[in-house]
Backbone:
């Protein structure tokens, strides 16, 4: 089944959470370029009035441009652009799940792992829990920590720091200094953008913490979906030479992948799982809740 066929087979559900509904709209626009309000209503199972409110929300935050009777997707051009946390977690979910599963296969029993707060790293943590092996985790992510706290075979450490309003991760001191004092087996991190051999983030605080994480691990895995091969974010946190392996999905731009492999970086590309199946499971989980 092609990607459009998967979109058409999504369960129609008015009660989808706003972040999931808006993510579905963005995914539909990513695949089709533009869409009418009726198309988006059919895709999400919402009413036209709900779609209009969602479109206004997404336009205000720089995701979309409105057209007469619909919308089309914008490629964010601001270096400091950050997607809303809940919305970002649902975007390209099929790709993130596949990347996370591949990354989790790199873990061995007894490993110490430093984890950043990216949504793709969160999927690696979910996949690692299914393996049920003892691990020591260090993370600045409140979401990862909340999930990991229930895994009995894991030891969880949080570094401290400050929380920005609207975001569920720690940054700054004393966490940055604490991270620099560690000697972990592995670091898993995401990036706002991969541009040539440059890795960047949208905020100074997060970039500084990523640098500390990478310098405190013997090996670093970069987990990024193919949309992250893009113009640079606001600040650099490292060069690709500091990364031992990049794991992305098979939608990654061939030229971008070739640039990484040209400097002898290991690049692993995975095939996304069924997007329709993921959404169906997500909806059933909401029903059970």
Residues:
């Amino acid at each position: 089944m092609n990607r459009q066929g998967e979109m058409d087979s999504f369960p129609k559900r008015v009660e989808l959470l706003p972040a999931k509904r808006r993510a579905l709209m963005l995914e539909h626009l990513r695949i089709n370029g533009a869409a009418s309000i009726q198309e988006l209503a059919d895709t999400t199972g919402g009413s036209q009035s709900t779609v209009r409110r969602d479109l206004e929300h997404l336009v205000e935050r720089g995701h979309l441009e409105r057209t007469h009777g619909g919308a089309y997707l914008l490629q964010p051009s601001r270096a400091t652009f950050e997607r809303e946390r809940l919305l970002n977690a649902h975007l390209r979910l099929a790709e993130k799940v596949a990347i996370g599963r591949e990354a989790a296969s790199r873990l061995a029993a007894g490993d110490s792992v430093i984890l950043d707060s990216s949504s793709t790293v969160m999927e690696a943590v979910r996949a690692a829990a299914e393996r049920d092996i003892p691990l020591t985790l260090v993370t600045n992510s409140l979401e990862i920590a909340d999930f990991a706290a229930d895994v009995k075979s894991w030891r969880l450490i949080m570094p401290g720091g400050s929380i920005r309003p609207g975001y569920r991760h720690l940054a700054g001191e004393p966490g940055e200094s604490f991270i620099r004092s560690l000697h972990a087996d592995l670091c898993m991190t995401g990036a706002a953008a991969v541009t040539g051999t440059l890795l960047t983030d949208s905020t100074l605080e997060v970039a500084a913490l990523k640098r500390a994480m990478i310098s405190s691990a013997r090996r670093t895995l970069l987990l990024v979906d193919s949309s992250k091969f893009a113009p640079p974010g606001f600040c650099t946190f490292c060069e690709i030479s500091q990364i031992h392996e990049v794991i992305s999905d098979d939608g990654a731009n061939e030229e971008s992948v070739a640039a990484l492999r040209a400097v002898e970086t290991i690049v692993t590309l995975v095939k996304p799982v069924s997007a329709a199946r993921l959404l169906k499971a997500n909806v059933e989980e909401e029903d059970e809740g």
Notes: Confidence is low (pLDDT under 50) at residues 1-14.
